[in-house]
Amino acid sequence: MITFDAVTKRYPDGTVAVDELSLDAPTGEITVFVGPSGCGKTTSLRMINRMIDATEGDILLDGKPVREIDPPTLRRGIGYVIQQAGLFPHRKIVDNIATVPRLLGWDRRKAHDRAMELLERVGLDSAMAERYPFQLSGGQQQRVGVARALAADPPVLLMDEPFSAVDPIVRTSLQDELLRLQAELHKTIVFVTHDIDEAIKLGDRVAVLRVGGRLAQLADPKTLLAEPVDDFVREFLGHDRGIRRLQFVSTDGLRLRTDLTVPEGYEGGRSEPWLLVVTADGRPVGWVPGDGRGEPQPFGTFRPGHDSMRAALDATLLSPSGCAVAVDEDGRALGVATREDLDAALAATLADGGPHASPERPHE
Ligand SMILES: Nc1ncnc2c1ncn2[C@@H]1O[C@H](COP(=O)(O)OP(=O)(O)OP(=O)(O)O)[C@@H](O)[C@H]1O
């Protein structure tokens, strides 16, 4: 556990970057620091591994003040990942990853084997090992940055905007990868971002900071979206907060209709406005009008119990029928959720006191 106990950082020019910050980053969880530019996120993060020393207050690592631990010893237990990876340009990828183990005195063979293991863990081909950083894409470099930080298996990982410099698609896959790794490794992670969507996706807990380095709110993502404490947090969360809350509403138990599917070759005869054509082995093909005329139209899918209500609602918007196609993990149609059924399920959830009821996280 990392504890900030009334931590203040005043730079020599008088700037108060962090002001009496108190919070816990629990062991094995991802705590995200989010907030507008200049609110003190990076300063807060760097005080944990003493790249910056606090002016007042204490940061405790498992109860021990970090100011009592000499920086090299402290950093041995703390991996650090920054924007644009910060790899050593003249070292091969394998040597970049092996940097800390080598510094710790591991022999060359063991450090090499560990680097190769990590390369695979972060989803990179072993052929990358012999390349230099400039021969990798930005996203691949970021993966190497994560591998390097994990090399000596530190219990704590500090990540400062690690995925900011890559395009949105690569960014999504890096976020998914981090969550997959974290499900195996259970590191204590403090993650800095200015992107609230990233914070909500990755954080077990999200600390929203305001300029001047003051904590505005610390909460799990569901609570944050449902109950922002003030206008600053509400505005920071954005105008589509209501829609985003649906990420935390489960589709478990949503009514599915199985009477709206027809086989391929359907030629009309049913009275419903839209019907879903499915193949003989149950795969959706598209929506056709009840009279069977015309080409099958686009459809949207979701996996009940796995995907959130937000995904189900999105699926209804992708089809002319206004219905979402429920599929199993192999993509076979389980049934169809109508907009009315979604509305009814949402009304019931809201009547229950909001989406707190669901244990689901959006990435699961
Ligand atoms: N070495 C320094 N000397 C004086 N002021 C500094 C120094 N480093 C940072 N600051 C100031 O401290 C405040 C917090 O900076 P910090 O980099 O921690 O913010 P941040 O939230 O990480 O910002 P960003 O999202 O833009 O990276 C800012 O006002 C910044 O200008």
Provide the helix percentage: 25-40%
Low-confidence stretches: 353-364
Q: Assign the CATH class of the largest domain.
A: Alpha Beta
Query: Within the largest sheet, what's the order of strands?
Result: 6-7-8-3-9-10
**Helical segment count:** 13
Q: Strand share of the residues?
A: 15-25%
CATH architecture of the largest domain: 3-Layer(aba) Sandwich
Measured between the Cα atoms of the first and last residue, the distance is: 24 Å
Structural class: alpha/beta
One letter per element, helices H and strands E, the order comes to EEEHEEHEHHHHEHEHEEHHHEEEEHEEH
Task: Give the CA-based shape.
Answer: globular
Alpha-carbon Rg, integer: 25 Å
Looking at CATH, the homologous superfamily of the largest domain is: P-loop containing nucleotide triphosphate hydrolases
Bound molecules: adenosine-5'-triphosphate
Topology, pairings included?
Blueprint: E1 2-10, E2 16-25, E3 30-34, H1 41-48, E4 56-61, E5 64-65, H2 71-76, E6 78-82, H3 93-97, H4 99-103, H5 108-121, H6 138-150, E7 156-160, H7 168-185, E8 188-193, H8 196-202, E9 205-210, E10 214-219, H9 221-226, H10 231-237, H11 241-245, E11 261-263, E12 274-278, E13 284-289, E14 301-302, H12 309-317, E15 323-327, E16 333-338, H13 339-351
Parallel strand pairs: 3-8, 3-9, 6-7, 7-8, 11-12, 14-15
Antiparallel strand pairs: 1-2, 1-4, 4-5, 9-10, 12-13, 15-16
Helix pairs in contact: 5-6
Pfam families: ABC_tran (PF00005)
Domain ABC transporter: 2-237
EC number: 7.6.2.9
Entry keywords:
16 strands, 364 residues, 4-stranded antiparallel β-sheet, disordered C terminus, 13 helices, alpha/beta, globular, binds adenosine-5'-triphosphate, 2 domains, Rossmann fold
